Amino acid sequence: MDREKNEVTDQMQANTLNSVRVQLVRSTYEILNREYGKKKGLELTSKIFIDMCRKGFEPLVGTYEKNAKGAAQMLRDAHQLQMVRGEIIESSAKRAVVREYDCLCHGNWNLELCSRISPDACDLICEILNPKLISYHTHYLNAGDDYCEMVFELED
Question: Would you say 133 and 68 are in contact if contact means Cβ atoms under 8 Å apart?
C-alpha cells in the first residue's frame, strides 16, 4: 500500500512540476510579447527555453548514440519525464521518427509558440549529439493533428 501511495505522490509531484514549467514558458512568452512585440518575444522565449534544455541535455550526451536513433531516444526520455505519451515509430542510425499523442503544451501554448520552441529543442538535440543530424516536424497537436511527429535524420 505504501508503495502505491508513493507512486501516486510521485506522479502528482511530476504533474505539478511539469504544469508549472509549461505555464512558466507561456507566461514568459506573453510578457516578452507585450514588452517587445510578437517576433522578438517569441525569439527571446525560445532562447530562454533552449538554454534550460541545454543545461539538462548536455550532461547526458555520452549516454546516447550520436545518430538519429540516439536523438529520438533522447527526446523520448526527456518527454517521458514530463509525462508525455508517445513512442519511437521508426528507429535506425540514419532516420528516426517520434510520435507523441499528448503533451502538456497542447492547449496551453498556441501553435506559434509550440512550432517555434519544439523544433528549436529538437535542433538542440541534433547540435549537441552530432552536427550532421537534422530534425523537422511533420505534425503538431496544436495544429489540430492527432499527434506531434518529429523526424531526425543523419546526413552523409
Answer: yes
- Is 100 within 8 Å of 86 (Cβ atoms)? yes
Domain that residue 68 falls in: 2-154
Q: What is the CATH classification number for the domain harbouring 124? A: 3.30.1380
Residues 129 and 123: their CA atoms lie apart, in Å, by 10
| Total domains in the fold of the chain | 1
CA 117, 118, 120: angle at the middle one, nearest 5?
65
Q: For the packed helices 38-57 and 68-81, what is the interaxial angle rounded to 10 degrees?
A: 100
**What is the structure's pLDDT at 3?**
61
- 3-state helix, strand and coil shares in percent for the chain, rounded to the nearest 5: 60, 20, 20
Model confidence pLDDT, tens digit, residues 30-76:
999 999 999 999 999 999 999 988 998 999 989 999 999 999 999 99
Is-contact 139 149, C-beta < 8 A?
yes
